[in-house]
Amino acid sequence: MHADTAVPAMETPRPAVPLRSRLAVIAIAAATFAMVTVESLPVGLLTSIGGGLGVSPGLAGLTVTLPGLLASVSAVVLPVLIRRTDRRLVLLVLLAVMLVATLASGLAPNFAVLLTARFFVGIAIGGFWALAASVAVRLVPEQHIPRATALAFGGATAANVLGAPAATLVGGLTDWRIAFLVVAGLGAFVAAALYALLPQLPATDPIRPRTLAAQLRVPAVRMAVTATFLLVGGHWAAFTFVSPILQQMSGLDERLIGPAQLGFGAAGIAGTFLAGSAAARDPRRVLLGTGVLLTAALALFTVAGQTPVGGVALLLVWGLAFGAVPVGVQTWIFRAAPEAAEAATALNTALFNLAIAVGALAGGLVVDGAGTAGALWTGAALGAVATLAVWAGGRSLTR
What pLDDT, on a 0 to 100 scale, did the predictor assign at position 6? Predict the structure, then answer.
């Protein structure tokens, strides 16, 4: 063998992610899960909360509306206000606010105290959710950013489809106050983990108001956030009152509401995975299919959901459809604004939470005036409008 014999170049191995960084990303996902679970926590417990505090189910729905409204504002305002504040400190403070407010919710002696606590929950949720993904990707090498992003958003998705149903099951087996205290305990554990695992995270490029406003001038981003608002708003107009819907319309025993919602969550997880690969190819088609399926499930509930079996079956279809919404919209946004993904994501987070607030409020007004069937028709109508809007937008908006 000659000394000058060429040696094949070896590929540079992908840099490994330190164990502490991996655990920190997992802790962020768990914190997002806890935050979003707290936001939707009252949904399956409205009957119990209303009965325990002496208010109607429609009025009890304000415990979902108020934090959703505050979260939508916090998601765009807080990232601007904190400017160059260390992100680790901001996340820990927001977790502490959520923890204290959730404890206060579980111990609230009356509805006014509960609503005040939920006000602070909303501020914490919006700010944390808007920052979580951008913090997670700073903890790993560039090659691992997609996985870290998916994990951070996965916490929110899992909370939407599993967190609230699990809390409903706990509340149904014990008491609605216990459900709040259990989630507060989860928040305390997650806060301790983040304190131990997160390094200092000085701000890089602070978000400015003009950066957010500029995203609304991108047609695809504008259509994506519109789809988010309509689909999520339609979902929450009905889902806020899923407990009385299943009990009064389908005749499901109150003790089975928690297991039924866990089934909804499992279907939602399936919808998320099924939509993932499809959205990478064509997010518009995923949202069209989701809109049709969601609209059909809600509209058929008043006809085919009059029995426990029919109600649970439609609830599973409903969960399958809604589970596809976040991944479909987020994929659309990343494709539409790759150079401003953080700002576009903050905007979408704001619209997502605003939709929860507006949808829950609209549903509450309709339920108090026209009963639970009205909430289902309201959700179906918003889902139909979203589907028509995405269809009318055309294929050019997928880029």
Answer: 45
